[in-house]
Amino acid sequence: MTEPASTPPSEQPLGAIVHRLSEQLPELVRSELRLAQAELTEKGKAAGLGVGLFSAAGILGLFALGTLIAAGILALDLVLPAWAAALIVAAVLLAAAGVAAMIGKKEVSEATPPAPERAIAGVKEDVAALKGHQS
């Protein structure tokens, strides 16, 4: 390129400055996009590791829950036959599952429809207000 090294930018013609800007701007945008991509890749790897560890914690918690259920059955086995202890623990677990299902169904029915009703109502009010101002 033929840009004068000793001429200050204030003395250079406007066309030369615009030409340099048009050459440098795309490279600046590309470098910023590369930086953003590198940052997102780094953050994505860290988030992936966190999700993996969280999943491992959930699985280990599930195993611990199974062990506690087995311990409850063995504790009841001290006073009842093993089959009766297992049946009682299973009945309690099924009752807890039923209660959780009923509460979950209630929450889902309250959350439907999944449309943002307040936002839609606000947009409709805005449109009505604009129509009222235009006529």
Binned, the helix content reads over 70%
Averaged pLDDT: 85
Helix vs. strand class: mainly alpha
Principal-axes shape call: elongated
Q: How many DSSP-defined strands? A: 0
Strand count, sense and barrel status of the largest sheet are: none
Radius of gyration: 33 Å
Question: Could you characterize what this model shows?
Answer:
- This protein is 83% helix and 0% strand.
- 0% of the residues are buried.
- The protein has three helices and no strands.
- The protein folds into two domains: 11-79; 83-135.
- The model has no long low-confidence stretch (mean pLDDT 85).
Annotation keywords:
mainly alpha
Task: Give me a quick take on this structure.
Helices cover 83% and strands 0% of the residues. The chain is mainly α and 135 residues long.
Outline the secondary-structure elements.
Elements: H1 14-77, H2 82-111, H3 117-134
